[in-house]
């Protein structure tokens, strides 16, 4: 896909649902946020002098409309290695700032054409682009024969017929048991046994983009937490009085992280974890918008990967296990806005894939009639799909409960999963032993099954750092 201009901007009012408490550091009860996406391909090569001049001129143009204190109002979405990628602009809700900011963007698109261009003025030269977002691949035929995975197997069986790379876990939760159940074998015959690779996840870093993690949980007593990442300009857990906003009491990030590395519920205990705390523990969205926070989070992940893998290919998996506004919904509001967000997403995706990163994406928990609520699953460039696995789920009777327009390539049981129970950090829970209600509970949702493909990816990374998503799909088809 090419454009008449090689520069672009994702620009639109993206958060008019204003907060009911004052924004930190101001007396404003309500405010609006605007997202300006820049042409990262150019800005990472721009000189510091050019960048400073651009920022100063842009700020001066809209200064009268900025939320006080004005010198701290514009948040820079920046990577140490990729440069300036976006701007987040806050204005008082009482001021009619949208038209003025649009005018400023138009003026600067003429003067600073290498930095950015309003999506309102983008032109399509080739197929794709503004008139339609990324098309999903055709749905897979559920009746097709299994593909051979012989080239991924190692014949390391000893004299007793057991593979030296495999170990047995007893009394495993049923979803893990089903993960290693051979074709034609019933769950009863498995007797609660889960077969897994030895040292699962060893040497690989997993970035978990979710609501954070309660590291006090006994599931994490031996977990290697490397770092925490906090994207965006806002705090996450600030007390609020907007009780009408949707929230969740399952503290999603804790069970998700435990499904990766947990002592009992996890599948890759030896992996190193970096927690990307993108939304609040109760799943409220904080003051900032989750779309630009997600992009800012990926920029911070890029820097983290780059710093921890100097001069080499990274062995890392980025797990995205929460849903956003559906891209189709964004298109119904403003198709050009949605297209610009796609382009912005693809740029960041490409840079991470070039580092050697792989993505595991949950397709969401909406109904079959709804296109996936995970916007990145649509935004991913088809050329990068070898590094991306989109995961769906089905119930115990093999009914596909999370379908999403055919973009799902892997599906497995996603009902009544035993997961680690999360608590707010203000509580001091007394965790019990085994599977009691203080430490675990059962929930539904394929967001958690998405974590179960991670050990497959980690093992193949150990065998071959240049695997594709087809390897993972073939491995799972062999079990179904």
From TrEMBL:
<keyword id="KW-0720">Serine protease</keyword>
<feature type="compositionally biased region" description="Basic and acidic residues">
    <location>
        <begin position="128"/>
        <end position="144"/>
    </location>
</feature>
<dbReference type="InterPro" id="IPR036852">
    <property type="entry name" value="Peptidase_S8/S53_dom_sf"/>
</dbReference>
<dbReference type="InterPro" id="IPR050131">
    <property type="entry name" value="Peptidase_S8_subtilisin-like"/>
</dbReference>
<protein>
    <recommendedName>
        <fullName>Peptidase S8/S53 domain-containing protein</fullName>
    </recommendedName>
</protein>
<feature type="compositionally biased region" description="Basic and acidic residues">
    <location>
        <begin position="152"/>
        <end position="173"/>
    </location>
</feature>
<keyword id="KW-0378">Hydrolase</keyword>
<keyword id="KW-0645">Protease</keyword>
<comment type="similarity">
    <text>Belongs to the peptidase S8 family.</text>
</comment>
<feature type="region of interest" description="Disordered">
    <location>
        <begin position="128"/>
        <end position="184"/>
    </location>
</feature>
<dbReference type="InterPro" id="IPR015500">
    <property type="entry name" value="Peptidase_S8_subtilisin-rel"/>
</dbReference>
<feature type="domain" description="Peptidase S8/S53">
    <location>
        <begin position="201"/>
        <end position="424"/>
    </location>
</feature>
<dbReference type="InterPro" id="IPR023827">
    <property type="entry name" value="Peptidase_S8_Asp-AS"/>
</dbReference>
<dbReference type="Pfam" id="PF00082">
    <property type="entry name" value="Peptidase_S8"/>
</dbReference>
<feature type="signal peptide">
    <location>
        <begin position="1"/>
        <end position="19"/>
    </location>
</feature>
<dbReference type="InterPro" id="IPR000209">
    <property type="entry name" value="Peptidase_S8/S53_dom"/>
</dbReference>
<dbReference type="GO" id="GO:0004252">
    <property type="term" value="F:serine-type endopeptidase activity"/>
</dbReference>
<keyword id="KW-0732">Signal</keyword>
<dbReference type="GO" id="GO:0006508">
    <property type="term" value="P:proteolysis"/>
</dbReference>
């Amino acid at each position: 896909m090419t454009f008449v201009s090689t520069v672009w901007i994702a620009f639109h009012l993206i958060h008019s649902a204003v907060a009911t408490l004052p924004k930190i550091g101001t007396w404003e009860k309500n405010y609006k946020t605007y997202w300006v996406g820049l042409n990262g391909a150019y800005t990472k090569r721009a000189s510091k002098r050019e960048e400073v001049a651009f920022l100063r001129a842009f700020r001066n143009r809209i200064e009268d409309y900025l939320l006080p204190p004005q010198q701290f109002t514009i948040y820079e979405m920046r990577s140490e290695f990729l440069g300036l990628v976006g701007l987040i602009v806050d204005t008082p809700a009482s001021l009619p700032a949208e038209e003025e900011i649009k005018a400023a963007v138009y003026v600067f698109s003429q003067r600073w054409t290498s930095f950015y261009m309003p999506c309102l003025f983008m032109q399509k030269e080739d197929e794709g682009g503004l008139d339609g977002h990324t098309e999903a691949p055709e749905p897979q035929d559920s009746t097709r024969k299994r593909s051979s995975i012989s080239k991924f197997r190692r014949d390391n069986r000893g004299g007793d017929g057991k593979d030296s790379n495999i170990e047995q876990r007893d009394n495993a939760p049923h979803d893990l048991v089903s993960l290693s159940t051979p074709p034609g074998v019933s769950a009863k015959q498995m007797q609660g046994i889960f077969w897994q690779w030895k040292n699962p996840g060893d040497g690989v870093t997993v970035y978990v983009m979710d609501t954070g993690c309660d590291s006090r949980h006994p599931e994490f007593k031996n977990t290697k937490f490397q770092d925490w990442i906090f994207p965006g300009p806002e705090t996450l857990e600030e007390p609020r009085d907007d009780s009408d906003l949707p929230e969740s009491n399952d503290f999603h990030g804790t069970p998700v992280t435990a499904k990766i590395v947990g002592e009992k519920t996890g599948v890759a205990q030896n992996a190193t974890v970096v927690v990307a705390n993108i939304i609040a523990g109760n799943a409220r969205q904080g003051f900032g918008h989750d779309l630009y926070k997600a992009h800012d989070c990926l920029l911070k992940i890029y820097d983290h990967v780059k710093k921890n893998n100097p001069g080499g290919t990274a062995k890392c998996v980025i797990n995205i296990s929460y849903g956003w506004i559906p891209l189709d919904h964004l298109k119904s509001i403003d198709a050009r806005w949605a297209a610009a967000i796609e382009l912005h997403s693809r740029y960041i995706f490409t840079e991470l894939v070039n580092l050697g990163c792989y993505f595991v994406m949950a397709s969401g928990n909406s109904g079959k009639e709804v296109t996936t609520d995970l916007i990145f699953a649509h935004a991913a460039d088809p050329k990068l799909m070898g590094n991306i696995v989109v995961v769906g789920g089905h119930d115990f009777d093999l009914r596909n409960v999370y379908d999403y327009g055919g973009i799902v390539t892997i599906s497995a049981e996603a009902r009544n999963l035993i997961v680690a129970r999360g608590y707010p950090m203000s509580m001091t829970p007394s965790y019990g032993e085994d599977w009691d209600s203080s430490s675990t509970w059962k929930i539904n949702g394929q967001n958690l099954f998405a974590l179960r493909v991670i050990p497959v990816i980690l093992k193949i990374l150990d065998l071959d750092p240049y695997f594709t998503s087809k390897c993972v799909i073939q491995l799972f088809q062999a079990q179904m």
